UniProtKB/TrEMBL annotation:
GO terms for molecular function: 5-oxoprolinase (ATP-hydrolyzing) activity. Pfam families: Hydant_A_C, Hydant_A_N, Hydantoinase_A. One of its GO terms (biological process) is glutathione metabolic process. InterPro entries: ACX-like_C (IPR049517), ATPase_NBD (IPR043129), Hydant_A_N (IPR008040), Hydantoinase_A (IPR002821), Oxoprolinase-like (IPR045079). Residues 508-674 form the Acetophenone carboxylase-like C-terminal domain. Residues 4-184 form the Hydantoinase/oxoprolinase N-terminal domain. Residues 205-490 form the Hydantoinase A/oxoprolinase domain. This is Hydantoinase/oxoprolinase family protein. The lineage of its organism: Bacteria, Bacillati, Actinomycetota, Actinomycetes, Propionibacteriales.
Length: 690
């Protein structure tokens, strides 16, 4: 009997999901995160879930891990000191950057420009030049390379990035510099731009390569340490890390290219949400993942998450394929405060995190958080995580009272309601970024709410967006771990072309697609995925000739069947996407900039939950009644135990539905219908939807 295990580390909790590969049965565990050393919380969760399931840790065949190690290294400014090697004349590439300033018209006045990840004093130039077609314009001066690398050695750089001009077209010089670096700087981890991002645009390529080098030592140490700890605990299974695009890579591949895992954690949640949507039958939906520190949102069409070519973490935006997730600093641990200057209530982005956490945790926290506000309003039970974390209501009341006093709102309940209203508006803004701002009407989508705090706020976000039903998955607090455990291996092969459609033919592009497919299939085969189980999809970055940006478009490879309709179909797909985004088309010739092939392995089988059928009346799951505060008034709510609900039950609000890893709030004039898959479908009571 073998098992696979999904692990997701959040800012507050570490979620673990164990899957029996023979029966598909699942077991879950939720334990506080350990920010100083994430592996401690991971091992504690694994040990606990194995004990609960009666499974020997040696029976775990694979550990599938979504981690925030790379993300935190960027956000906390704790990456390595990076040395950068560039082509002569391009030393200031990171300082020049792009002339984009976030914010309004006065953004250039108040925006503090972030420091480059590789300082100018740690950047050197080498004598060489490659043309845009890959031709060698100036041969590499190896003596100069050694001289420049010795300068970096004297600066005690901790990682090295090499990004030479046009190396995407011909990586020979970069590879040779890497070989010389192994001699001059032995033991130093090296990132080559031709390996990390073999694409056009020297700034984006350099920035992404430097970011990769910046987090590489920390990620490598974490992965090696976790593997060592797993081995000591008796786990012989392989460790895989989740990529930002929702696929898995081996631990070794993650160490070599950690920039591809900056959105590792949120991607797992979107993958899990897709599985939930498949069971409930809603192909188009928004995802709403609210944890203890932040909230991640995404948009999914026809069960396929929208995938972008950029990944943003804090002030850093790199070119790395990832699920189009937007993050806002709004979570259960977000701290409410009243600035002296404005006397206006603010919530976040500062977070109490896992240590000390909200005041309700009784671990030393005293500042009012969103969790404390939910406790004050009666939405949260007296304990979380199946009893592992008791809540101190008196401490929450004392913390939120400081907001009531500072704002003049009067009652502590009014202050708590203000905190909830503001954090909901913050999360609405994030949802609008992936829907309205991208040309989608959220009313055309369902909303899947998960994470430890998501189900508490899902109903309210449904009201704000008009997205119905609001779907609460079974075990919503560990859905990210489910996504980690139920995805397959993935890899990507990319080639930059920069060709107008007039310079291409269906046959020539099909040949390139076949070459990329062979490359990505070979990589998956090397990682143990049989070729018969591999799937390859294709995409391209297109633009009108003369445009300064590209739009990613899927390629229908079946259209390149020799009938001559391949490029025509690609042109039509690009025009449709351009018109949706910008509401106009141009007469310029179409141009293909980059083409890619993405290969994936099979998803594992997991037993689907099928609840017994029951009546609409959910009285059998009712536990008690208690007062809660909603819209400025106290109302009587029924408390339900989710594990006792059966298919067809209808829970009318106001109601609170409790379970081990999360709590769901159903507001007045709304009702939650229990789907046979175990999900709760929340809609307005007067809704005509079935």
């Amino acid at each position: 009997m073998t098992h696979r295990l999904g692990v997701d580390v959040g800012g507050t909790f570490t979620d673990v999901l164990l899957i029996d590969e023979d029966t598909g049965a699942t077991y879950r565990e939720k334990t506080p995160s350990t920010p100083d050393d994430q592996s401690v919380g991971v091992l504690r969760g694994i040990t606990s879930v194995c004990a609960d399931a009666g499974v020997d840790i040696g029976d775990i065949r694979s550990v599938l891990h979504g981690t925030t190690v790379a993300t935190n290294a960027i956000l906390e400014g704790k990456g390595a000191r990076v040395g950068l090697v560039t082509t002569q004349g391009f030393r200031q590439v990171l300082q020049i950057a792009r002339s984009f300033v976030p914010g309004g018209l006065a953004g250039w006045i108040i925006w503090p420009k972030p420091e480059p990840l590789a300082a100018l004093e740690d950047t050197v130039e080498v004598a060489e030049r490659v043309g845009s077609e890959g031709e060698v314009v100036r041969a590499l001066d190896e003596d100069d390379v050694r001289t420049q690398l010795r300068k970096l050695k004297a600066h005690d750089v901790e990682a090295l990035s090499i990004s030479l001009l046009n190396s995407y077209a011909n990586p020979t010089h970069e590879r040779r510099v890497g070989e010389i670096a192994a001699e001059e700087l032995p033991g130093l981890q090296v990132s080559l731009s031709s390996t990390v991002l073999a694409e056009l645009r020297e700034y984006e390529r350099t920035l992404t390569t430097v970011a990769n080098a910046c987090v590489q030592p920390r990620v490598a140490r974490y992965v090696e340490h976790l593997e060592s700890q797993l081995e000591k605990a008796g786990a012989d299974g392989k460790l895989y890390i989740l990529r930002s695009d929702g696929g898995l890579v081996s631990a070794k591949a993650a160490e070599e290219n950690p920039v591809s895992m900056l959105m590792s954690g949120p991607a797992g949640g979107v993958t899990g949400a897709v599985r939930v949507a498949e069971q409930t039958g809603f192909a188009d939906f928004l995802t709403f993942d609210m944890g203890g520190t932040s909230t991640d949102v995404a948009l999914v069409q026809n069960f396929a998450p929208r995938v972008g070519r950029e990944t943003s973490v804090g002030d850093l935006t790199v070119r790395a394929t990832s699920v189009d997730v937007r993050t806002v600093g709004a979570g259960g641990g977000s701290i409410a405060h009243v600035p002296e200057l404005t006397q206006a209530l603010r919530v976040g982005p500062q977070s109490a995190g896992a240590a000390p956490g909200p005041a309700a945790y009784g671990a030393g926290g005293t500042e009012p958080t969103v969790t404390d506000a939910n406790v004050v309003l009666g939405y949260l039970p007296t304990e979380l995580a199946g009893g592992e974390l008791p809540l101190d209501r008196d401490a929450s009341v004392a913390a939120v009272k400081s907001i009531a006093d500072g704002t003049g709102l009067g009652s502590v309940e009014a202050a708590a309601q203000g905190i909830i209203d503001i954090v909901n508006e913050n999360m609405l803004g994030a949802l609008r970024l992936v829907s309205v701002q991208q040309g989608f009407d959220p009313r055309d989508f369902a909303l899947i709410a998960y994470g430890g705090a998501g189900p508490l706020h899902g109903n309210a976000l449904g009201k704000l967006t008009g997205a119905w039903p609001v779907i609460i998955p079974p075990s919503p607090g560990v859905l990210c771990a489910l996504g980690d455990a139920t995805t397959g291996l993935r890899d990507e092969a990319v080639r930059t072309l920069v060709r107008t459609f007039g310079q291409l033919s269906d046959d020539s592009l099909r040949q390139i697609l076949d070459e990329l497919s062979a490359e990505v299939r070979a990589s998956l085969t090397e990682q143990g995925v049989p070729e018969s189980e591999q799937q390859v999809t294709y995409g391209a970055d297109l633009r009108y000739h003369g445009q300064g940006f590209e739009i990613p478009v899927d390629i229908d490879v079946a259209a390149f069947d020799g009938s001559g309709g391949g490029l025509a179909a690609l042109r039509t797909a690009f025009d449709a996407e351009h018109e949706r985004l910008f509401s106009f088309l141009l007469d310029n010739e179409h141009e293909l900039v980059t083409v890619r092939a993405t290969g994936s392995g099979p998803r594992p089988t997991v037993a689907e939950t099928v609840l017994a059928d029951g009546e609409a009346d959910a009285v059998g799951a009712a536990v008690r009644r208690q007062p809660i505060w909603v819209d400025g008034a106290q109302v009587e709510a029924t408390i339900y135990e989710r594990g006792k609900l059966v298919a067809g039950n209808v829970v009318a609000g106001p109601a609170v539905i409790t379970e081990m890893d999360s709590t769901t709030l159903v507001l007045p004039d709304h009702a939650a219908t229990v789907h046979r898959s175990g999900s709760l479908l929340i809609r307005p009571i007067d809704s005509q939807e079935g």
